[in-house]
Amino acid sequence: MDAMKLKKMMKSVESAMAAATFAEEGEAETARSILKSGRGVLLALKEGRIDARTLKYALNTALRIGANLEILYVTSDEHKEGITEPALKEFEKQLTKDGVTYRMIQRTGCLKQQIIDYTDREKEILFAVIESPGSLDLDCDRKDKTLSELWQNLKCPLVVVMDQAKA
Predict the structure, then answer these.
(1) β 125-130/102-108 pair status
(2) By residue range, what is the domain housing residue 154?
(3) Cβ distance 29 to 7 under 8 Å?
C-alpha cells in the first residue's frame, strides 16, 4: 500500500473516531458533519445562466449522498462583489433549511478554466454539475489549446443538466 492511500485511510479512521465520540455524547449533527466533510459536489454556475433544474439537481444529489456542496459562481466582472442573483439567494436559503453544508466560491473569467483549477486543488470533489455546455466557453480564449487538453483530463466526472428540448 502506498503512502497516499495509507494517509487517506488514516484520515478516514480519525474522522470516524471523532464522529463516534460526538455521537456518544448526543451530538448527532456534529457527528454527521464530521463524517460528510471532505466529500463534495461542485456546482459550477456562470453569472446570468442559473437554471432552477440545475440547482435542484445539485441540492438533491448532495442530500442523497451526504456530501457538501461547493458552489463555484463565475462572473465576467472582477470588480463585482457578492451575489446579486435572486435565484441563487433563494437557493442559499433552501440549502440552509435542508441542512446542506455548502461553501460559495466567487471567481471571474472562464467557467471551464475555473472548474479545472478548482478540481485540481480540491481532491475530494466527487463530480461537477453544470447548467449547459454552452456556458463553459463564455469568457474563454478559444485559441487556448492548453485549456482543451486540461479539460480532457478533468479530475472528476462532469454532469450536465439540460432541458430535454435542448438535448
Answers:
(1) unpaired
(2) 38-160
(3) no
